[in-house]
Amino acid sequence: MRAVPLSAFVMLAALAASPVSTPAFAQAAPAAAPAANDAVTAGSRVAMPERKLPPEEQADSDGLRALAKMTPALPMEKVLLKVDAPFAIAPVSAMAQDKAGNIYLFHRPEDRAIDPVVVLDSRGKYIRSFGKGIFTIPHGIRVDPEGNVWTIDANKSMIVKFSSDGKKLLQIDVGDIPDATRPFCGATDVTFAPNGHIYVSDGYCNGRYIEYDAAGKKIRQWGSKGKGDGEFNLVHDISLSADNILYVADRESGRVQWFDTEGKFLGKKHFGGQLFSAAVAPDGMIYVGTHAKGIGYDKDSFIFKFNPKTGQVIGKLEAFAHQMTIGADGTVLPGPVTVKVSNDPGDYILVFRPKK
Predict the structure, then answer these.
(1) Side-chain-facing half-sphere of 149: CA atoms under 13 Å
(2) φ, ψ of residue 101 in degrees (nearest 5)
(3) CB burial class (10 A; 0-12, 13-18, 19+) of residue 310?
(4) CB under 8 Å to 135, separation ≥6 — which residues?
(5) Would you call 7 helix, strand, or coil by DSSP?
(6) Residues 219-276 pLDDT 10s
(7) What Rg, from alpha-carbon coordinates, does the chain have?
């Protein structure tokens, strides 16, 4: 299966405001700005109309662009992997990787007879798929240290744990959905602690994250809506480091905050615009996926790598990262990128790999 440099192709990003039957990647902030669901699709390029921002938001997004200009590129290779699957790949919400290098796609097929979880090898060759008929809005996917696969439905606010071969092992219904009429009003992501506990970000309507034990029993929760320390304006992503620090993506505030495992606020870093994802790398560095507000996701979207102990921004990649995973080998899987190659009916996904 071929791995092709991105420069040979055109990446297509489409924005859609979709009903529940055809969900898009993520609902816009429940603020004054008009709702705009973000989706990257395999199809013709559709540009989201640019919208005028309030002066404060404009300055914030301009600050993100300025940071990107002064930040050097990371020594990574953009690679396109052709997806060799027996069905078409719908918009991909998130990707994960296991210890063997296999890639797990979580996509949003309109046909409920198609599996939303698709497993590929490191070259894009299809291995298996599972999960049909369970999800309304597939949102996040993670692989735990034992190789189990965890999936998050942002409409049902539901966490489902599978074995690596697709056997359903556990379901956690997060509940407390403030507005059941909203397509996106539930949980967004999950991360794993060494003691078997899991932490869930519940951000579209609730500004909180929650700790559960290994059996799915709720232990406690932290956070509320707002802009202060320990408050969130859309909790979109969560990741636990080897030294037991939780990094939480505060999406519409354009920042990442971090806490100990008992919810004590430890620090924050503001990047500007929107900050969709926060992922811990094997070397302890943090990758965040950002985007300047007011334009389509195929423009002014940046992945930054930074040192949480010093705050130093080390480098950047140019791509939209809805929910990001950093593989054990350093591969960056940004999530929602479905690429079409001219005169090729197949589907491609984008990954970044360390240059050798």
Answers:
(1) 27
(2) 90, 0
(3) exposed
(4) 116, 151, 153, 156, 158, 160
(5) helix
(6) 999 999 999 999 999 999 999 999 999 999 999 999 999 999 999 999 999 999 999 9
(7) 18
Could you give the CA distance from residue 156 to residue 174 in angstroms, rounded to a whole number?
Answer: 8
pLDDT tens digits, 127-160: 999 999 999 999 999 999 999 999 999 999 999 9
Q: Which residue has the tokens 């894009």?
A: 124
CB distance 259 to 305 below 8 Å: no
Using CA atoms, how far apart are residues 77 and 102, in angstroms rounded to an integer?
Answer: 18
Instruction: Give the pLDDT score at 319.
Output: 94
Q: Which domains does the chain have, with CATH numbers?
A: 3-49+58-354 (2.120.10.30)
Could you tell me the pLDDT band of residue 349, with boundaries at 50, 70 and 90? very high
* pLDDT at residue 38 greater than cutoff 50: no
Token pair of 178 as six digits: 């403030």
User: What's the full length of the chain, in residues?
Assistant: 356
| CB neighbour list of residue 71: distance below 8 Å, 6 or more residues apart | 302, 304, 313, 315, 316
**272 and 281 Cβ atoms separated by less than 8 Å:** no
> pTM for the complete prediction?
0.87
